[in-house]
Amino acid sequence: MTTTTAPAARRTPAASLPGAARLSLVRAGLELRQFWRERDAVIFIFAYPIVMMAIFSTVFGSAEQGTEQGMTVDFARYFLPGMIATGVMLTSFQSLAIAIAVERDDGTLRRLRATPLPASAYFGGKVVLTIATSVVQTAILLAVAALAFDVPLPTDPGRWFTFAWVFLLGTATGTVCGVAFSSLPRSGRSATAVVTPVVLVLQFTSGVFFAFYMLPGWMQTASSLFPLKWIAQGMRSVFLPEEMVVLEPGGSWQHAETAGVLVAWLVVALVVGIRTFRWRRRDDG
């Protein structure tokens, strides 16, 4: 008696999930759509640097910076770098720290963690959102500065190269710091109250609202510990006349120090973020 065995069932390979890069782009598309639906946030992020520059330039329109040292540059041109720097911090650090805290509080992060979406795709989507909004915001600010306030834009490719690396490194640092800082607020409702004062204080002490060389020495030293001061200084090296370098600490634009401080903050924030990031609320187990 012979026995026959049924043919083995044909195994079909499991459908592979898209790669992390593709999932990041998909997540970024969702993030961008959600961002544009929040009209109040869109208006604030894009309009804030422009409105602040317009207010200061109108109030101090006849004032010139650097007159004590025998050099003059109009107010709008001097403060454009600071407005770019603070715009970078708003779209990266402040926006992400608040948004992630809110998403943790309302359960969005917990639900995402229960899906096959890898954590890298979630953070990748946030990075793409931050870069996109920062680029649009900065482009609008430069256009308004040039057309409405007659601020001359650089023609030297070397200056635009400096602009590119300071902008990208500053955005990356602000993004990672925002992710790390998002674990500090105890709830989504308290996030704005916790994050906004930090940015506001740094704006006053980092050469955004006031000429940096006019600040007290202790304030300059304290602000040098934080990224915003270095982003603003890097941007001043792009948009201000070369002779105004004498107004900077040490009489130098300090590009190497700028890169070093920003990279140090990026690395430290990355380590802290990995160790402290939470997908659930404190009271959610």
Automatic annotation (TrEMBL):
The keyword Zinc-finger does not apply. Belongs to the ABC-2 integral membrane protein family. The keyword Transport applies. Keywords: Antibiotic resistance, Cell membrane, Membrane, Transmembrane, Transmembrane helix, Transport. One of its GO terms (cellular component) is ATP-binding cassette (ABC) transporter complex. PROSITE patterns: ABC_TM2. It comes from Isoptericola variabilis (strain 225). This is Transport permease protein. Signal peptide: none annotated. Its main location: membrane. The chain crosses the membrane at residues 41-63, 75-102, 123-148, 160-181, 193-215, 259-277. InterPro entries: ABC2_TM (IPR013525), ABC2_TM_bact-type (IPR047817), ABC_2_transport (IPR000412), Nod_factor_ABC_transporter (IPR051784). It is a multi-pass membrane protein. PANTHER family: NODULATION PROTEIN J. Pfam families: ABC2_membrane. It is found in: Cell membrane; Membrane. GO terms for biological process: response to antibiotic. Residues 40-280 form the ABC transmembrane type-2 domain. One of its GO terms (molecular function) is ABC-type transporter activity.
